[in-house]
Design a protein that fits this description.
9 helices, Butyryl-CoA Dehydrogenase, subunit A, domain 3, 247 residues, mainly alpha
Amino acid sequence: MQGMSWLCRRLDLVAVRLSVSLNHHHDQQMSSFFGLGKTRTFKPRKDVPEGTKQYQLRKYAEATLGSGNLRLAVQLPDGEDLNEWLAVHAVDFFNHLNMLYGTITEFCTREECTLMSAGPRYEYLWEDGVKYKRPTKLAAPDYVDALMNWAQGLLDDEAVFPNRIGVPFPKNFRETVRTIVRRLFRVYAHIYSNHFDHICALGIEAHLNTSYRHFFLFVNEFDLVDKKELAPLDELNDAILAEEKTR
């Protein structure tokens, strides 16, 4: 496991590549490295219908991501609905993280990762109110499997994530998004804290760094995750914010 100071130095070393777009071309790049190891991924969340507001916002997001300016790319476009913007990004973050985690499943096993953790100081318990009604200790791959199934169920539920014209968002939508991204962060934290050496061995650290940078800047822009929840990657987060100030 690599120290966080070392991670930040790695972040600096690949900074020139952090402007890589996370749009359709980035998806193609990410899928191209699945042959590097055994993978297990969930079915990507279905595309939104053409002509809908979410479809238009996704195209806008892809265009701004293509500029390489992630700080600009996460900002809500003028005159647009925040819920639509949150929905588009929640789906994209799920899909990108799903692919990234899929590259390390041969390393993230019940034997090697007996707990869902982010280093020795942070351990996560799973609770979904259905199968796991109380906080339950799970091995990391089982935790991620439960999390991704839970998240996919929400993302594919039209009553929770509507994408048809005229269908309103539920009143608790933003809190739902906060819960989803808070739990997705835990997967990023586990990858960085427990599997960054594997990521580097596969040569895909730039993909991970770009994906997380986009995720963190979006979360920070809309205050979606409490600072204490982000603590496992504080040093990396501070490095990202410091670099953004110099741009």
